[in-house]
Specification:
This protein has strands at residues 2-5, 11-14, 18-22, 40-48, 53-59, 63-70, 73-77, 82-85, 89-94, 99-104, 112-119, 129-134, 145-149, 157-158, 163-170, 175-179, 185-192, 195-197, 200-202, 207-210, 215-220, 224-231. By secondary structure, the chain is mainly β. A hairpin with a 4-residue loop joins strand 7 (73-77) and strand 8.
Amino acid sequence: MITRRPAQARGHKNHGWLNANHTFSFGSYYDPQHMQFRALRVMNEDFVSPGKGFGTHPHDNMEIVTYVLEGALEHRDSMGNGEVLRPGEFQRMSAGTGITHSEFNPSKDEPVHLYQIWLLPEKDGITPSYEQKRFPDEGRHNELRLVASRDQAEGSLLIHTDARVYLATIDQGQSVTRPVAAGRYAWLQVLRGSVTLNGQPLETSDGAAIANETSLTIEATTDAEVMLFDLA
């Protein structure tokens, strides 16, 4: 079963400096029908104005994955990390027992377009940690590249939850296929372009909750970029 979450049905908040879209309930956006999907708790697509950002704020007991599509995002945290995240790079932060951090668009004239994703950890109270890594285009061109996992397989980032996160850029007319193990679930997020998922059309910024499927075929109807989550 594939249940589409249309982009236009998401929660939307325009704060002036921040244009935010919420797949699941977040902040002042509350929808009891869309609280989370399995361990996937937050799927925010954000556009941050030049020179603006999120001031220092706390997190705990959450796995936070950030991916920039366009622009750059400067990160600083209470663990001493200070990095700039650019397109093609993934950032993973395990908040665990508690951290504070800030995120800022360092550009004077270019907005930053990003996804921030939260996954519920398997257990609370882990030691906070941080990773950032680039995944080159050639490793995910017309194939699903593992970018985050519980066991760091294939050089992926570590996440402390039973999930595997894949990224692919797919040329128009090409497709990628992935089996779904018995008892597993999946979520597909279309980052750019248009695809079909087992024949069902999905557009830019659409998501899809997947249950009771044994195999997924993602075909690009335009050049596309997608993120796929394999979930317990």
